[in-house]
Specification:
Layout: H1 2-11, E1 14-16, H2 31-40, E2 47-52, H3 53-58, H4 63-72, E3 76-80, E4 82-83, E5 94-95, H5 99-111, E6 120-121, H6 129-156, H7 158-166, H8 173-179, H9 185-193, H10 197-214
Length: 217
């Protein structure tokens, strides 16, 4: 394996494609397990990951979740922009049409500074030429609108504002103590027990508001 890697890395970066429904060993069930496997054998510098919408849903995660897992670990290299029917439970190779999902996806791409060495690819199985044309155009249209939505969110700063407000307790008081690994459960219990129901409801509302804000596009 290492001999092969040495040769291939002279040519390009290797893209690993996690799939929860193919391998019997399940070392590439999702992005997290794939990262653990690569980390275990010291291969994180040799591989990037190709994240596929449909494979993400088959593993029980959203595509945005898988993209963020790959991104924060420096592994995001390519996106296979084909989706599937979540009720079927198999890789049905459909073109992306959900602009809301595309918005989440493009937010990860922007945070990643783009995609390298890959990009977006549409690996869908269509045989009728006119169908291929329509579906490719629609897939690109969906991603383009997702990118435009992210640009709007970045320009007005509303989404970042919601995130900061939701997690503002970690910038001071007990939250900062926990992040500094100096807190304990006893202190946390005293802090929470003193809160009114209204305060806790506001915290939950901030999480819901974040999701609603992103789904308005």
């Amino acid at each position: 394996m290492f001999v092969t890697l040495t040769y291939i890395c002279k040519i390009s970066t290797i893209l690993n494609n996690p799939n929860p429904c193919l391998s019997s060993c399940r070392y590439d069930w999702n992005i997290a397990t794939t990262f653990s496997f690569l980390q275990k054998y010291g291969l994180t510098g040799e591989f990037k990951i190709n994240v596929e919408f449909n494979h993400a849903s088959l593993s029980g995660h959203s595509c945005h979740h898988e993209l963020e897992t790959a991104r924060i670990n420096g592994l995001l290299g390519n996106i296979d922009a084909k989706t599937g029917d979540p009720q079927i439970g198999w890789d049905t190779d459909q073109f992306l049409t959900d602009i809301s999902e595309a918005t989440w996806v493009m937010s990860s791409v922007i945070k990643n500074g783009g995609l390298a060495p890959g990009g977006f690819n549409f690996d869908a199985k269509l045989l009728v030429l006119i169908g291929i044309g329509f579906c490719f155009v629609n897939g690109m249209y969906t991603l383009t609108n997702g990118l435009r939505n992210v640009a709007k969110l970045m320009e007005d700063g509303s989404l970042d504002g919601l995130v900061r407000k939701r997690h503002q307790s970690f910038d001071s008081e007990i939250g900062a103590t926990i992040e500094a690994e100096k807190g304990d459960l006893e202190t946390l219990e005293k802090k929470i027990s003193g809160k009114q129901l209204k305060e806790l409801a506001v915290m939950l509302f901030q999480s819901a508001l974040y999701m609603v804000h992103c789904s308005c596009f």
